[in-house]
Each structure stands twice: as C-alpha cells, then as structure tokens.
Amino acid sequence: MPFKLVLEKRVKDVPPWYPFATSIGSVVIAFIISGLILKLIGGQPLEVARYFFTAAFGSWAAFSDTLVKATPLILVGLACTVAFKMKLWNIGAEGQFYMGAFFASLVVLLPILPPDSPKIVVIGAMMVMGMIGGAIWGFIPGYLKARFSINEIISTLMLNYVAILWNNFWIFNTWSDAGFQMTPTFPKSAWLTRVTDYARPYKAFMQNTDSGLTRFLESIGLERISGMTLHLGVVFGLIAVVIVWWLLERSRWGYEVALIGDNPHAARYAGLNIARNIILVMMVSGALAGLAGMSEVTGVVHRLQERISPGYGFTGIIIAWLAKLNPFAVVPVAILFGGLILAGREIQPSGLAMMLQGFILFMIISSDVLLRYKIRFSK
Amino acid sequence: MTNAVEMQNVTVRFPGVLANDQVNLTLKQGEIHALLGENGAGKSTLMNVLAGLYKQSSGTLKVHGQPVSFNSPKDAIAQGIGMIHQHFMLVPTQTVTENILLGLDDPGFALNLPRYDQKVLDLQAQFGLHVDPAAKIWQLSVGEQQRVEILKVLYRGADILIMDEPTAVLAPQEIDELMNTMRSMVALGKSIIFISHKLHEVTAVADKVTVLRKGVVTAEGISAKGLTPAKLAQLMVGREVVFSVKKKAQEPGDVVLSVNDIHAENNKGVPALRGLSLDVRSGEILGIAGVTGNGQSELAEVITGLRSCTGRVIINDEEIANRPPIRAIESGVGHIPEDRSKVGTAPNLSITRNTIMKSYRHEPIGNGWTINFVKARQEARQLKDKYAILAPSVKTPARNLSGGNLQKVILAREISTRPKLLVAMQPTRGLDVGAIEAVQTLLLEQREAGAAILLISEELEELLSLSDRIAVISHGKIMGVMPVEEADVNKIGLMMVGSETVNN
Ligand SMILES: Nc1ncnc2c1ncn2[C@@H]1O[C@H](COP(=O)(O)OP(=O)(O)OP(=O)(O)O)[C@@H](O)[C@H]1O
Ligand SMILES: [Mg+2]
Q: In this model, does residue B504 exceed pLDDT 50?
C-alpha cells in the first residue's frame, strides 16, 4: 500500500465543539452507509430518504407524531445520562420503563384512587407511582452493586426480561380485557391532555379572530390541530431536561456524581459515601425511565398492554451517548430517533430503521477513537 | 565522543501554554545528563517528545546523528530510546518476566517462561539490577518495581534512557543503589537523561546539566563539575533560595491526635501496623521517620478513616477509628495523600472542582443543595495565585497539570481549610526547590496557628528542620520518640533498622 493509516495519540485536548461534531458526523455517515446498502439491494436511497423526511418532519401533523415518539426517548435518554455520568452502565431502562408503566397503571387498575377522582389527582398519583416503579427497578441492581459488587450491566439487563414478563403476567391473567393481551381502556381522567383536546375551543376561537392570523396559521399548516396526538408528556420531558441539567451541573449531588465517576478513590478520600450514591443514581435513573413508561401509558396507549415499548430503553443508551451526556443535547437527538422510529414503521423493508439505528450506534462508538487519537496518512 | 541525541529548536505548544520554546539539548554518548527546572518548566514534555509520546510543533530530533521523526513510543524504542516514567506501568498480577515481555513479538503464542527468566537474569547480572524474575509485581517494593521498569527498556535494547524523577518515590538507600546502577549503565555505553528536583543528586551523579525555565533553556549542557546545589537553584529559579526555613520556638498545646495500640493490615493482607501508639499536640509537628513500607501509608490511612484497624484513634476527643472518612474530615483532619494522581485528585475535573473536594459541603461553597461555583472559582483563583499553580486557568483539567503543580493543588486544598490536624505524607514530593521552601513555610505557619501536624517523610533533612519531635517507625511500631534537638542521623538510622529503643 502506498499510504499507511497512522493513529496518533492526542496530547492536546480536543476543542469543546469536537465531540458534538463527531456525533453529527456519525449520524451522517450512518445515513450514507445505509443508503449505499439500500442501493446495493436495488432500492432508491434518495427516494427513501425523502420519504423518511416527509413522514417524520414533513408537516406539523407528522412532526407532532415524531414528538410523541421522542417523548419517552427524552426521558430514557436522561435516565441513561444520569447513570453514565457516574460510569454506572444502566442498560435496564427498558425494564424500568415497563415497571413505571405498571406501577402507574395500578392507580387505575387496583384501583388506588376511586374512578371518579379529578384528573389532576389521578395524573399526579400516576406520575408518582410511575417514578416509584422505575426507582424500585433501579434500586435492585443498585443495591446489589453497592452491597455485593454485582456487575450492574448483567443485573440491569436481566431485570429487563423480568419486568416485561411480570407485565405480561398481569395483562394476560388478571386484568385482561376480554381475553385480549391488554387491560381495558383507562377512564379519561387518566389520560394526559393532548393537543387535539384543544381542537374545539380553538375552532371557536378562530372564528372570532381576524382572518389575517387565520390565514397565517393556514399557510404554515397549523389550522388543523384536531387529530394531533402530541400530549403533555413532552412537557414532562422538557422539565426533566432542565431539572437533570441543574442536578448534574449545579447541585452538590451532581458534583458528587461527577467526582465518583471520574475517580472513585479520590471520592472515598474526599469522604463521599459511594455505596449510597450508587443506589441513589440507579434510583433516579430508574425513576426517569419509569416516568417515560407512565407518560406512554397515559399519553398514548391509555391502557396497559403488551409491547408498549419498541425498545425505547435500549435506544436511550444510544441517545445518551450521541448527546455526549449533555441533557440539553438529549432533546434534538431524541427527536431524530423519534422520527426514525415513526418513519421506519411504514417503510419496507421494515428493518431499515433498525439498521440505521445500528449503524449510528456503531459509528458513534467508533468515532470515540477520534476523540483520543488523530488519524494521519503517511507514506 | 559522538552525540547520542540532539534536540534542536524544539517547540511544544498546548492550548494557552508554551511548554517548550526553541529548546536545544545535546546528549553525548556515555553521559548522564541532568534536566532541571521549576515545576511546569517543561521537562516532562520535552522528554515525552524524545520518547515518541508527544509530537513537537516544530524543531528537529537527531539520534546518533540521523534525523528522526517519531509517531509513537514504538518508533522511539526502535531507535534505542526508552523512558522510565514516574508512574509505573506494570501489571500487578503478573510476574517480573511476564511484564518485561509484555507487548513484544518474540515469545510467540507458546510461552516458555523459564527460558526467558534466564535471559532476564543475565540482563540483571550485567547491570546489577536484581529482582526475582518469578516474583509477582504486587509483591515488590517501589524500588524493585522501578528496577523492573528499567529492565523492561534495557530488554528492548535501549541505549538511551530517559528517567523522569526516578528518585522521587525512592527511599534514600534505594536512591544510592539507583545511582550506582546509573553509573554502571553509562560505563557500559548507555546514555542517560535524568530529571530530578533533588539538587544534591544532580551534583552527585550528573556529568552535564541543562536547565529549563518557563519552557526556555537557561543553561545548555553546562558541566556539572564544581556546581553546587545553591548555584543550581539560582539557575532554576532565577533568585537565591534559602535552604533552611526558620522555625519559631513555641510550647505545644493540648493533645489533638491520640493513637493507641493500633493494628492494621496492608493491601496484601499482611499485618502492617502492629501495636502502634503516638500523640500529636496542637502547635506541634511530629515527624515520622522510617524506611518506606514500614507502615507509614497504613498509619495515615487509619487516621483519616480510609483503612480499618483495631485499637483507638482519637481526634479532639472523638473516636475516629473504623468510622467513615467523612468523620475525620468533619472533625478537621486534612490529609495530603501519598499518591497524588490515584487518590488525591480527579483527573478530568477542573482545578476548581478539585479544590472544593473537601469544602463543597459547607458555606460559602456549598449552600444547601447547590454549589456556588462563582465563589468556588474565585477561591480557586486565589489559591492558584497563592500557591503559584501554573495552569492556563482554573478551568484546566487536573490531568493537564505538571506533576509538581498537581501536588500544589492538593496542598492548597488541604492547607487552606485550616485543619486542626494535618496528616502530611511526603508533602514536598515532586516540588521544585522554590516550592519546597514555600510549602515548608506554610506548614510552619499552620503550626504557629495551632494545628497539629503529622509529617511523614523520606527526607530526613526535611524532618529535622520542620519537626518538634521525631518518631521512628519500623515494622509497624514506633521504635522511639525524641525531641528534635536530641535527634541525629545516626541515632535515627539505627532505630530505623529496629535495633535501639528510646523511651519518650
Ligand atoms: N497534555 C497537556 N495539555 C495541556 N497542557 C499541558 C499538558 N501537559 C503539560 N502541559 C503543560 O505544560 C507545561 C509543562 O509541563 P511539564 O509536565 O512538562 O512540566 P515539568 O517541567 O515536568 O514540571 P514538574 O516538575 O512539575 O513535573 C505545564 O504548564 C503544563 O500545565
Ligand atoms: Mg514532570
């Protein structure tokens, strides 16, 4: 070979924008590779790309659907971010998501609250229960690690299956709706408010305003909000972003998490209680994933059923990584993946979105090499 | 004589720092060349360039007269250049021979260890570097581990050796042995560049001296003959350095630390402290003298709550033994740990975040749930100025600091909290002469302010000039305690090997 690829260890720190650039680069390269593969098997990559884009971001209605998918992704992305900051490899967000959904549903199914309770009380109770459910599912591996040094990767992975089967048991057995693998639909008081719920008051409002505004809204395609499924969960997600950012970057606890993550020996020397923080971080992480489960049950499916997650918990790992553990960056990344999941459902071959996700993960992991090494060509 | 190495106009730039500015250095075949300079002067950086770890921004390297360009340490070793780093890079669970062979192509898939053990033994005999080839690394003392590092580069055929502060971690006797090894290596045609802050070592062993100040060469390859430590210090710092600090006479106060009959094991599960007792009073410095590995590390860890033990450790009437480390911290114990990078700092956190490691729980840094980072940065800037920590800003991550500056971050943090008891383990290790003077003055200030200080050091001179009393530790026990006025090197030396006991 005339040229040789040389990996040179970086001595100087990369500039602050560099990690984000590699993230974006990874996504772009993953798209290109997927396109090439599509071409190889005789597809039309540009057509597909256009379809992808229209299906996910082409109209306000499509974008609303994308945001619906992005909502749980924001929350699980944050869940992973919190754990990864302390170098705790929680890959159990999926299970914590299911437990959150299950515990939230208990409010209606047991029921914990009488069916005619006001909406705000029901939703509030479901949020708390969802977070408790996820937190319990985080506590178990956290405790096992803190107390017996049991590897959290294995335990969180295994607990995913337990959670899914646990859910199935109750859906198939106790709360099955006429033999289907789902519970009966929840009362409206357990539904998160959706944009479409405002359609009627909005129409009444529009009739009374001057036509200029009406025309403007029509021109950007926002005049028909009925049917938009975007729900309040997205607000939970955005509030959670700010809270998690504050916790990690400004609070005492966030400082402890960063210190333990960077050097546990120094943390012990500085008087930190590492065992307690392991449990706490796993519980916070679990609670965020649990809230995602609650939001999905109350905002989208309105009942507990099988397969409420197409692997959100696992996608959360990729999202946290792509966002470089920055809570704000989680939002755009989650929206991108929300679009992928949405568009991927309608496209043939159906594995395309999954393949793309796989490539993105692969690229992002490989691109970390760029953060530590310079690549040069030499003779 | 030919030139083994010529570095010409080497410049290395880091963001915000010009670490080496047009540096020239010539190493002759068969010479020991000392590289001196203040903390952060750029010594390690320059040597990392020569060892192929860093790439210079500009400038040329020649080895044996041939221009070379290194992209990795492999390239450097191919030219016969090997570096012995201050932090050893050995695999603790493997044997000496296994570590020496690590990464080489020669023993292929099947490993015939005994054959290679013999090769290692031959090499040892040649240079007088003795270590059991079949011993596991974790069983070895620091000095022996260093010998393994040296054997490792010799085995790879290095004839130019770079040693970055090799003596910082060694006991005085080990230092003598190392110097003998260095002399026998140059006698066999090797050439050595050697970094040290201990100027008497330089005058004892070096042929030539190059001095760096703030990245610039201030003395290039001058002959070491006739140089005195005082003259060297002046070349380095640019002013005269007072080698003895003034200690005021003062009466010690109440007992702050009382250690009673403690027993503890070391990391290998072997008893390291065996019935040790001592007291330290407020306004007093108790120096602990002893050969490394006689329980000093374990003693410091027991007092700061990092190691479990039997017996009693009482600080200001509070029982500390076997309580979590936070108890000791909250009762006013400062701790300068032995290992600055593994224990004392968090590499990827900023200087600011490293300086608040102990103070973030309380006002004015900690405030309920939050940390006041504005305030934290302010205080970090003050500490940076006061302790002359060399870094572009307080946002610089700790890993980018030079060895001595990292040590200063720890000192700044631990001393600035005005501890009631300060456990100082090798506090001046890796510091330049100017910084040593400053830190010793600060320790004495703490003493005058009424702190009790337990000073654990290898440096007998340092102990004698700072301490009020000196205790000698051997095999996990205090062999005797004496007022510093009655202490002399011979007496301490005898007690160190455990042959004489003086009662307090
Ligand atoms: N990887 C790096 N990134 C940024 N700055 C660096 C890096 N390595 C070293 N520096 C800076 O370069 C300067 C020289 O550092 P160097 O480690 O060479 O000093 P030194 O002479 O070995 O000091 P010491 O005696 O304290 O070990 C210092 O200001 C240091 O902060
Ligand atoms: Mg150095």
A: no
SS3 content of chain A, % helix, strand, coil (to 5): 70, 5, 25
**Cα–Cα nearest to A269, from A277, A261, A259, A278:** A259
Min distance A264 CA to chain B CA atoms (Å): 8
Angle between helix A60-85 and A252-262 (nearest 10): 70
- Residues B474, B498 contacting (CB under 8 angstroms): yes
What is the rounded average pLDDT of the residues B423-442? 89
Which structural domain, as residue segments, surrounds residue A287?
42-194+229-348
Given a contact cutoff of 8 angstroms between Cβ atoms, the answer to whether B272 and B476 are in contact is yes
Give yes or no: residues B284 and B294 share one domain.
Answer: yes
A151 reaches B (C-beta below 8 A): no
Please tell me which of the candidates B325, B353, B358 has its beta carbon nearest to residue A268. B325
Would you call A233 helix, strand, or coil by DSSP?
helix
- Among B12, B45, B49, which is best to mutate for testing ligand 1, by the most ligand atoms less than 8 A from CB? B45
Last residue of a domain, one of B207, B237, B267: B237
Q: Which of residues 295-354 of B touch A (CB under 8 A)?
A: 304, 306, 324-326, 328-330, 335, 337, 342-349, 353
User: How far, in Å, are A70, A331, B151 from residue A323 at the CA level?
Assistant: 14, 9, 45
Domain extent, residue B399, equals: 349-418
- Taking 50 as the threshold, does the pLDDT of residue B89 lie above it? yes
Put simply, whether A189 touches B (Cβ < 8 Å) is no
Residue A199 DSSP SS3: helix
What does the pLDDT read at residue B503?
44
What phi and psi values does residue B311 have, to the nearest 5 degrees? 110, -175
pLDDT of residue A377: 72
Statement to judge: residues B412 and B444 lie in one domain = no
Any idea which residue has 């114990």 for tokens? B333
Vertex A49 angle, CA A43 and A50, to 5°: 115
User: For B343, which residue in chain A has the nearest alpha carbon?
Assistant: A266
| pLDDT of A220 above 50 | yes
So what's the ipTM on this one? 0.88
Nearest to B370 among A252, A269, A273 (CB): A252
Confirm if A73 and A312 have CB atoms less than 8 A apart: yes
* CATH number of the domain residue B430 falls in: 3.40.50.300
Cβ atoms A26, A360 nearer than 8 A? yes
Residue A217 lies in a domain: no
